[in-house]
Amino acid sequence: MSATRYTYLGPQGTFTEAALRTLPEAATRELVPMVSVPAALDAVRNGEAAAALVPIENSVEGGVTATLDELASGEPLMIYREVLLPIAFALLVRPGTALSDVKTVTGHPVAQPQVRNWLRANLPDAVWESAASNADGARQVQEGRFDAAFAGEFAAATYGLVPLITEIHDAENAETRFVLVGRPARPSAPTGADKTSVVLWLRADRPGALLELLQEFAVRGVNLMLIQSRPTGEGIGNYCFAVDAEGHVSDRRVGEALMGLKRTCPEVRFLGSYPRAGVAQGDLPNLPAGTSDGAFTAASDWLTRCLDGRA
What we know:
By secondary structure, the protein is α/β, with parallel strands linked by helices. 26% of the residues lie in helices and 30% in strands. It has eight helices and 15 strands. Strands 1, 2, 3, 4, 5 and 11 form a six-stranded mixed sheet that branches. Strands 8-7-9-6-10 form a five-stranded mixed sheet. Strands 13-14-12-15 form a four-stranded antiparallel sheet, with helices on both faces. Strand 3 and strand 4 form a beta hairpin. It is elongated. The termini are far apart. The model has no long low-confidence stretch (mean pLDDT 92).
């Protein structure tokens, strides 16, 4: 395995590359762009790279399905870190192009919902066609296949383009969440502001089945930060659920919730416990009464006394 190589959703100039370069270790790694999320993750699976950075969630569009599906299937991988990156698009064009010249536009599919209103107001007749990434869209503009691409302003120089308009976004404070993914190993130590990711499968499609899964978290005071259903590929109505829970697997409330899920689900895939991005030490979550590790320990000690006749 190449311990110095990190892959990412390419080509050069993507928001994913920008997010990866915010990590301190990126300065000492070989950063290799890949054509797709599956290709970036497969490089980790087959030992060509130590880790991959891929997008997993957008504050406007929600979960990135390509990443969720890849993590739910195939050889297991594990999330070790997350990165939050503010997202604003620039309309990149070839030099000399005016807004009135733009008849075709492109960008990543996740970008379209973030600029839909802007397009309707400023380029109502332009035809949209999705690209593998925003930077790939910029490359195709360079090649003359499209008139303009929505991408990061920083991608313009790479592809010999110019930003015709900058700071384009329908939603203020839009962010994309990226995760650094490697092969399974021991999770990092808890920080007090952590996130645990799992994929859950229902044992049967029946009334209350999903509620039973959610109650494993609720009764232990575990806050859910994301839950998204994804088809399993085994027929209409068959779904698994990608879940992000507040806390670390070593926290008693989280660990016991996962044990409860393991008893009731046909499959539980643990995707890792890792520090939450953008959370300062002073912003640590306030736990509901009775859900701290101390409360679980006290309850366990009480049960032991009951069994010993000392309650």
